[in-house]
C-alpha cells in the first residue's frame, strides 16, 4: 500500500501529460514538404487552401471536379505533375493551365470528357506526358493540338477510337509513346499511319484491338521502336501488313481468353520481309514445329516463347545464329537438354522460369553456350544432391545465375567452380545442404550479390562465406542464428567488403556489440522483423550515414546514451515497434521529432504505451514531463510538512538529550 501511495504522490508531482496534436491542415497527405501532396479520394470539389503555393507534385484523383477552368489551379503555378484520375470531369475550359508553365505530366484518366477547349492545354512550356485513358474519346480531333509540340507520350487506351488518323496540324515530331490499346481499331491504312511519319523511334501500342487488316506498305515509311499487336487472333494479317517495315521490337503475344489461330511455319515466313530484332510470341501454339520454323528469324536477337506449350526444341534449328536472348518460361520441358542449346551459339541470356513440369538439370546440357552471361532457372522444382559443376559445365562467362524457388540443392566445396566470373547468385527459397566444411562459394572472387533468403543455412559455420572478397550485397533473410544471437565471432567476419546486409526475419533476440566490427563499408543494414531490443543498437555504433531498418522489433524505450548512434545515420525505420510514449522515453521522443527528416515509415511508427495514445503516431504526441501547477502545490505542501516535522523532531531530540545529562 505504501508503494502505491508513493507512486501516486510522484505521479501527481511530476504529472506527464500526453496528447495528440491534430491539425485541420492535414487533409492531404504531405509526402515531401512544400512539394508533394496526395489528396486522393477525399470528396473534394476544389483545391484546399491548405496546399502551399509551392506544390509541384499533386495526386488529386477520385474527387469531384465536373468543370475545370483557369481559376481551378491558378494558385499552384509550380505544378509539374497533376493527377486528376476519375474526378468526374466533363468540361475543360479555355486557358485552364495557362499559369502552369512547368507542367510536365497531366493525367485525366477515367473522366467522361464532353468538351476540351482548343486552348485548354495552353500554358505549359514542356508538357510531355498526357493521359486520356477511358475518357470516352471516339475521334482524335477531340484532342486540342495547341501547345503539344513537346509531347513525348500520349495514352489513349480503353476508348472508342476506330481510326488513328490525327489532324494535319497535330505535332507528332517528338512523340515516343503512343498507346491505343483496347480501342476499336480494326483496320490500319497508309493514310492513317502517314500522320505519324514525323515521329522517329515511336513505340506504338495496338494491344487488344483485334486488328483485321493492314494496308500493304502502311508501316514501311517509318522506323519504330516497338509495335504491339497483342491479342490479334490471326497473325497472318500482321505479318502480311508489316512487309518492308522496320521495328526494334514486335510484340505479338496473346491471352488465354482469346480464341486465336495456331502459328504455322508458313505464317512466320512473313518475317523475311521485315526487319525485327526482338519478337514476343507468348501464349501461342505452334501447329507444326520443325527445324525450319525459324528460318526467317535471321535478324532476331531476342525471342520470347513463354507459355507456348513447348515440350522440346528440335536440333538443327536454322535462322537463330544471332539470337542473344531467349525466354522459354512456363513450358513443358522434362529436362534442360530438351532445349537443344547448340541451336543458339550466340546466346548470352537464357530464361526458363516456372516450368510446368519438374525440370531436371541433366549433365552438360548448356555446355555449348560458352557466351552465356545470364541464366535464370528459378521456380522449376529443380532438385540435385550434387550441384552445380556438372550441370553448368563450360559456362565460364556466366555472370548472373538464378536458382531461387527450387527444391533442395546439395552444395559441395567450390560448387560453382565452372562459373568463376559470377557477379550475382540468387538461391532464395531453395533449401541448401552444405556437404563440405569449406565454403561452396570460395572460388567466386567476382561475386558482388548473394541472395540466400530462406535457405535454412547453418549460420554457425564461420567459413560459409569465405572466399568472397568483392561481395557487396548479402541477403540472409529468414535464416536463423543459434539462440537468436549474432555473436562477436560469426560468419560475417570474412566479408569485409559488404555494403548492404539484410538480416530481417532471422529470429534475432540480440546482437553482440562487436558483431559487425569487421564491416567497415556498410551503407544499408536491414534488421527488421526480429525481436531485438534497444540493447542491439550498440552493434551499429561504428557505422555512419547508413540506412538502418529496425522495423517490427521489440524496441520500446531507447536510452539517451544511444541517441548519438542514431543521429549519425542517414535514414532509420522504427515502424511497428511497441514504442513507449511516456516520460520514461522523453529523450527519444524529443530526438524523434527533431529528426523526422531521417525517419522512414513514420506513418506506421506509433505508440504502444500508455493505452490512452496507443496507435497514435509518434510525431503527433506531445509530452509534458515537467512539474505542473498541481505538482508545485503538492511540493509546497510536502516541503512545509517536512519542515514542521523536522522542527519537532529536532526539538524532541534536544529535549531528550537535556533530560539525560
UniProtKB/TrEMBL annotation:
TM stretches of this protein: 627-650
Domain LRRCT: from-to ranges: 577-626
Keyword check for Manganese: no
Protein's cellular compartments: Cell membrane
Leader sequence residues: 1-23
Highest taxon in the source lineage: Eukaryota
Pfam families on file: LRR_11 (PF18831), LRR_8 (PF13855)
UniProt entry tagged with the keyword Repeat: yes
SMART domains xref list: LRR_TYP, LRRCT
UniProt GO BP: B cell proliferation involved in immune response; defense response to Gram-negative bacterium; detection of lipopolysaccharide; inflammatory response; innate immune response; MyD88-dependent toll-like receptor signaling pathway; positive regulation of lipopolysaccharide-mediated signaling pathway; toll-like receptor 4 signaling pathway
Any one GO MF annotation of this record: lipopolysaccharide binding
Coiled-coil regions listed: none
Chief location category: membrane
Alphabetical keyword list: Cell membrane, Glycoprotein, Immunity, Inflammatory response, Innate immunity, Leucine-rich repeat, Membrane, Receptor, Repeat, Signal, Transmembrane, Transmembrane helix
Gene3D superfamilies the record matches: Ribonuclease Inhibitor
Family assignment from sequence similarity: Belongs to the Toll-like receptor family.
Assembly and binders: M-shaped tetramer of two CD180-LY86 heterodimers.
Function summary: May cooperate with MD-1 and TLR4 to mediate the innate immune response to bacterial lipopolysaccharide (LPS) in B-cells. Leads to NF-kappa-B activation. Also involved in the life/death decision of B-cells.
PANTHER family (alphabetical): PROTEIN TOLL-RELATED (PTHR24365:SF541), TOLL-LIKE RECEPTOR (PTHR24365)
Listed name of the protein: CD180 antigen
Species of the source: Rhinopithecus roxellana
